[in-house]
Amino acid sequence: MNENLLDISDGKLYDRNDMVKVGCHDCVGCSSCCKNMGQSILLDPYDIWQLTTNLKKSFEELLVSSIELHMEEGLILPNLRMVQLAAASDEEGCSFLDKDGRCSIHTFRPGICRLFPLGRNYEPNRLQYFLLKDACPVQGKSKLKVEKWLGIPNSKAYQEYLIRWHNLTKAVRSLVGASLEEENKAKAITMDFLSSFFIKPYDCEDFFEEIHLRMDQWEERNGKH
Ligand code: SF4
Ligand code: SF4
Questions:
Q1: Nearest protein Cα to ligand 1, atom 4
Q2: Which segment of 27-36, 54-63, 74-83 scores lowest on mean pLDDT?
Q3: Which atom of ligand 2 is nearest the CA belonging to 112?
Q4: What predicted TM-score, i.e. pTM, was given to this entire model?
């Protein structure tokens, strides 16, 4: 565990089958991790598949209503959009918060929302989790298995996908970085990435089969890094 993580966590790394103290009793009226999050709630292809399928909206339609794009180290990535919560307030909240301060898409909320107050620690072939210190104000949390907390069916396939996705995005960042002197090439890679993994609809039966196919195709076009 690196020093930065030691500063912000309880100093332990957890595997998906480990128990961790995260159970916050259904958030008991709190929605603090859904507010004032800026562009930090990043969406990955699994999240986009879940949102487009369950809301029956295209990626472009989500961009109009509830998500936005931002640039990060040469990649264009989607994130949940924060909106002003009340006319006379500076407070912003997720566009999916309902009038009672609850998540209106709870059953298919994005992975980062499911994680909180856990964070992900990636190594090339391993994904572990750390508990963010003092991030969630609820006292007397219960212990739960990490995979139960995440509540995603087929957590093994999900985790394998996340590791490969993380490695691929790192490789794309390097590729864009190495192409910066050729502006058109860097732009073409960025747009191909956005289009291949986010704009192209996920109208598939098996998300994991589809995403691995798309990642294979990306590596065939751009090389495996
Ligand atoms: S901060 Fe904790 S209790 Fe509050 S909404 Fe987030 S996870 Fe729930
Ligand atoms: S999607 Fe739901 S859980 Fe995630 S930030 Fe928005 S309201 Fe909160």
A1: 30
A2: 27-36
A3: 4
A4: 0.94
Give me ligand 1 centre to Cα 93, in Å: 13
Rounded to a whole number of angstroms, the distance between the first and last alpha carbons of the chain is 25
169 in Cβ contact with 45 (< 8 Å): no
Q: Which ligand is located closest to the Cα atom of residue 100?
A: 2
| Average pLDDT over every residue of 83-107 | 91
Number of the ligand closest to the Cα of 112:
2
The ligand placed nearest to the CA atom of residue 117 is 1
pLDDT tens figures, 65-92: 999 999 999 999 999 999 998 877 888 9
What is the bridge-based pairing of β-strands 92-94 and 118-123? unpaired
Rounded to the nearest angstrom, the distance between the alpha carbon of 33 and the centre of ligand 1 is 6
| Residue in 91, 106, 109 to alter for ligand 2 test, most ligand atoms within 8 A of Cβ | 109
Pocket test for ligand 2, best of 50, 51, 79, 80 (most atoms within 8 A of CB): 80
Nearest to 80 by CA among 120, 31, 41, 123: 41
Q: What are the φ and ψ backbone dihedral angles of 156, each rounded to 5 degrees?
A: -65, -50
Q: What is the mean pLDDT of residues 194-207?
A: 95
Q: Which residues contact 206 (CB under 8 A, 6 or more apart)?
A: none
